[in-house]
Design goal:
Strand content: 15-25%
Number of helices: 14
Number of domains: 3
Shape: globular
CATH superfamily of the largest domain: HUPs
CATH architecture of the largest domain: 3-Layer(aba) Sandwich
Distance between the termini: 45 Å
Strand order of the largest sheet: 2-1-3-4-9-8-7-5-6
Number of strands: 20
């Protein structure tokens, strides 16, 4: 049975995806939709409620996005957030004007009238504002139920219809009781059943796969060893059994023990037909003399496609190609309900394979966020070291070696990387860090080793540890200084060729997480 859905109409808010995530955290299926989504499309999605997101526009601007007027005739409950409130009021006969003061940051909300939307929300309570325009008058049937010092219509509700609006942002953590308000909308107003659970998600995915694939056809899955492709393979194996063939292209740019872990997990544990293609020398040869980061990525992508195509053609009876596309990828590619957006950044994954391969595509994770994928993986029994490993870039260590890629520099980086991971795991830091890795610089620095000056063939190793919930923003980890010192000492004592270790304390933005 398809889950109940809350449609989040995206008016361009930086928080639109966050709204959908908050809805899902409350065990309800939330999806992003374009502002002009039709009632028919909402019915197809089994929609039980609509949230109008915030956005940067002014409702009276010539090109300001609006929802369709017939949505208000569906009887579906609606919650407008910030710009979404302004759109609702403007379309239903209210007035929106420039606020007396631009309100950005924390404000204090006072509740004047009890309402199911605000059940359990204390008064006063902190809320996060980010607006210039605001509703100056509501239309007939609406009434104010809460206010701030500068916004008398901070929360409004219709007396006869399930229509609500808030000027602040309940989806951000700076509104401490915002989750309670969203829960009230979902359960008090929309009467959601809370059925978006991992067990039900898995059952729905397996049902969709069974409905899509022929009983005698073989399925190919590109397996990198990362979380997304691993969970994809585990799901398909539940349906296809020995008709599933996984292809892992060893490009020689993996971390220490990467291929061995993939073999152990999918050959020994799941008994999956795994084909590992040893193409390390081919990739390294193609990268000889290349230092430009973009060129590196292009070469790696090109070589991966050629290797994968050759291996896939050797599998008789293959009709389907599976990949671990996630919901944010679908949104960013413009292929979701939310309309056009930037293209997915493709490296050497299955998503970069050309259409002429002739396979029918299977994307079992295309409706899930990363944290949901991990929960699915736990449900399927995938090991901890696969599910909770730190993200690894598609081009592998090639973008963590600044300058030319050589076999010697790859081996040097692997040895340093292994020491770093050993130390942070031993001290319990690994699960506290979103991503930890080493960057090797083509910089020679003067050092002293064994009473002699060191300079030739010496490298600088940069430690990069970040904390992040979504990887759109990130901050450097305030790691224990003793641990940093121990890592530095081990690296310089155990790895010949490194005489300086530094720690990257840059945040994103303005920096990126990876160096290339």
């Amino acid at each position: 049975m398809k889950p109940q859905t809350i449609a989040v109409l995206d008016f361009g808010s930086q928080y639109a995806q966050l709204i959908a995530r908050r809805v899902r955290d409350l065990r309800v299926h939330g999806v992003l939709c374009a502002p002009d989504v039709s009632p028919d499309e909402l019915r197809r999605l089994h929609t039980v409620g609509i949230i109008l997101s915030g956005g940067p526009a002014s409702v009276y601007a010539e090109d300001a996005p609006r929802c369709r007027a017939d949505l208000f005739q569906t009887g579906l409950p609606m919650l407008g957030i910030c710009y979404g409130l302004q759109v609702m009021c403007a379309m239903l006969g209210g007035n929106v004007g420039a606020g007396r003061l631009h309100e950005y940051g924390r404000s204090e909300l006072t509740i004047d009238k009890p309402n199911p939307l605000l059940e359990g929300v204390p008064s006063p309570t902190p809320v996060w504002m980010s607006h210039g325009d605001m509703v100056s008058a509501v239309s007939e049937g609406f009434e104010p139920i809460a206010r701030t010092k500068t916004c008398p219509l901070a929360v409004v509700a219709h007396t006869g219809k399930p229509l609500f609006g808030v000027q602040f942002h309940p989806e951000v953590t700076h509104t401490p009781h915002g989750t309670r308000l969203l829960r009230n909308f979902l359960y008090n107003v929309c009467r959601c059943d809370g059925g978006w659970t991992v067990g039900r998600v898995v059952d729905n995915i397996l049902e969709d796969i069974r409905n899509q694939v022929d009983n005698d056809a073989r399925i190919i899955c590109g397996l990198s060893g990362g979380v997304d492709s691993s969970v994809t393979a585990a799901l398909l194996h539940r349906v296809a059994g020995d008709r599933l063939v996984c292809i892992c292209v060893d490009n020689g740019l993996m971390r220490q023990g990467e291929i061995e872990l993939v073999r152990k997990t999918f050959t020994d544990h799941f008994r999956i037909d795994l084909r590992v293609v040893d193409a390390g020398e081919r990739f390294l040869s193609a990268l000889t003399g290349v230092t430009n980061p973009r060129t590196k990525r292009q070469i790696i992508g090109r070589e991966f496609i050629e290797v994968f195509k050759a291996e896939a053609k050797a599998i008789d009876g293959a009709k389907y190609l599976a990949q671990g596309t996630l919901y944010p990828d679908v949104i960013e590619s413009g292929h979701g309900h939310a309309g056009e957006a930037a293209e997915i950044k493709l490296h050497h994954n299955v998503g970069g394979l050309p259409k002429e391969l002739g396979f029918e595509l299977i994307e079992p994770l295309r409706d899930l966020f990363k944290d949901e994928v991990r929960r699915v993986g736990e449900h399927l029994g995938l090991p901890y070291e696969i599910l909770w490993r730190h993200p690894f870039p598609g081009p592998g260590l090639a973008v963590r070696i600044i300058g030319e890629i050589t076999a010697a520099r790859l081996e040097l980086l692997r040895r340093i990387d292994t020491i770093v991971l050993d130390e942070i795991v031993a001290e319990g830091w690994y699960p506290k860090i979103a991503q930890a890795f080493v960057v090797l610089l083509p910089v020679r620095t003067v050092g002293v080793m064994g009473d002699e000056q060191s300079y030739e063939d010496q490298h600088v190793a940069v430690l990069r540890f970040v904390e992040s919930s979504d990887f759109m923003t990130a901050d450097w980890v305030h790691l224990d200084h003793e641990l940093l010192g121990r890592i530095s000492t081990r690296v310089m004592n155990e790895v010949a060729g490194v005489n300086r270790v530094v720690y990257d304390i840059s945040s994103k933005p303005p920096s990126t997480i990876e160096w290339e």
